[in-house]
Amino acid sequence: PLMKEKGHELEEISLANVKSRYPQINLEGVTTAYYEPRVGYLEASRSCGVVMKQFTSLGGQYEQAKVTGLNGTGKIKSITLESGKTLSADQYVFACGPWMRKLFPGLNELIKVSRQEVYYFQAPEDHLGTHLPIWIEFGEGEKMFYGIPDHFNQGFKMAYDQRNWPLDVDSDDRGVTPEIHRQMSEVLAGRFPALEKAALLRHHTCVYESSPDGDFIIDQAPGFSNATILCGSSGHGFKMGPAIGEIIADHISTGKPLPKEFGLSR
Question: pTM surpassing 0.90?
Fold first, then answer.
């Protein structure tokens, strides 16, 4: 209902129809299927690059550096960078993902950091391009898998949405984890039998920083009156970025209160 309310077609299709359209898919264990004609995906890194270019063209300054300290009591007077340089502002917004806990140790119990490995497999022609749709599978419990059949000619992309594998973003290895690779390969082969022995072409490790209830944490930074924190993105932060940006802009420029449902007090 929510999708249709926004003008998206979302039709339930019979499994017989799925089998006819996409014989590459093994439907064992599938109970229901939906098709969305306008489905697509966002390229996060490219999109962020576009935003940065627009930001700098409007007079903003972009600097990539590590923050090592927050200076001030009750109010941040400046932040110190690893180079020793300090930056001062009237208002600060911290959207530091998995590093948020290192700047604000009081959030340690509220943010869980996990590794999310992404794989690109070699696949036959009928599993690439328009031969298969972008797909999402919701399994038992909270298991979820998804894929893009031909991601910029890099292979059959597959990833998962699970939070069981922790990661220290500064010290842990970002390479392939054999156990996760084995499990995902089994899932892939179970749903797409022709990919049972598919070679791994590429891999990268993404990071989730999740809140206990899966909702965002958007609030005043603990101990500082002129700083706002954005964390607990739980894998959804990027696509919600424009809406959250408007909330923060309104809060800083007009004093409009932040949504209580995202507050730390909950």
Answer: no
